[in-house]
């Protein structure tokens, strides 16, 4: 029962992490314009994401523009996109794989060993998906930080971390933690020894000797 509860907890955490990765990928707030230093606070806030850039007016109105061409984007941005999309697809595969191996499901009940391996395999895929999202968000955040502290970057073009980065970091951590719980939820198999054979009992003597 304890391993089943740990397995369910791991799946829920990993699933929430996968949802967070999707939300982070779709959000345009991967970086936001910084108004630190000598910047003049304008009447709009600028955001940039993986797919579009947005400007939010002081009235609350948001105007977004999708990036025109994929080939005109920086290679780092394209790599970040690819890692996040790969994390989403891997998470989808991990969900179906882990659900098949869950103890509360009736799939593959006739072979508990294969069922256990499916749960572990799903956990491993969740960990890989979380690592892909963690690498993508950390790589993007490192580029934002380096550009912010670069003295050659104009003050009015500096950006800070957006909320999508923090959501991505939290989601990647949940996916990795949930995958680890899935991998550790299966009980260890106890060593089974073959049953000892009983020696045949001597037949009772009838008192007659046969020649």
From TrEMBL:
Chief location: other
Molecular function in Gene Ontology: structural molecule activity
Bilayer topology term: Multi-pass membrane protein
Transmembrane segments: 7-27, 79-99, 119-141, 161-184
Localisation per UniProt entry: Cell junction, Tight junction; Cell membrane
UniProtKB keywords: Cell junction, Cell membrane, Membrane, Tight junction, Transmembrane, Transmembrane helix
InterPro entries the UniProt entry points to: Claudin (IPR006187), Claudin1 (IPR003548), Claudin_CS (IPR017974), PMP22/EMP/MP20/Claudin (IPR004031)
Keyword Membrane included in the entry's annotation: yes
GO CC, any one term: plasma membrane
Job description of the protein: Claudins function as major constituents of the tight junction complexes that regulate the permeability of epithelia.
Family the entry assigns: Belongs to the claudin family.
Name of the protein described by the UniProt record: Claudin
Organism lineage: Eukaryota, Metazoa, Chordata, Craniata, Vertebrata
């Amino acid at each position: 029962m304890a391993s089943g509860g740990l397995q369910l907890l791991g799946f829920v955490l990993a699933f929430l992490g996968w949802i967070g990765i999707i939300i982070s990928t779709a959000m345009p707030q991967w970086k936001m314009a910084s108004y630190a230093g000598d910047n003049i606070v304008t009447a709009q806030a600028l955001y940039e994401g993986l797919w579009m850039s947005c400007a939010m007016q002081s009235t609350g109105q948001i105007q977004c523009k999708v990036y025109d061409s994929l080939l005109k984007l920086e290679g780092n941005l394209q790599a970040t996109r690819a890692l996040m999309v790969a994390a989403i697809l891997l998470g989808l595969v991990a969900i179906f794989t882990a659900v098949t191996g869950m103890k509360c499901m009736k799939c593959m009940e006739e072979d508990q060993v294969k069922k256990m391996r499916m749960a572990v395999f799903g956990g491993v895929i969740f960990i890989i998906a979380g690592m892909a999202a963690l690498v993508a968000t950390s790589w993007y955040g490192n580029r934002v930080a380096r550009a912010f502290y670069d003295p050659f970057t104009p003050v009015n073009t500096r950006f800070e971390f957006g909320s999508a980065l923090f959501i991505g970091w939290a989601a990647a951590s949940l996916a990795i933690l949930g995958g680890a719980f899935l991998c550790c939820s299966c009980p260890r198999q106890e060593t089974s020894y073959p049953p000892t054979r009983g020696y045949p009992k001597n037949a009772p003597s009838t008192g007659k000797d046969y020649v």
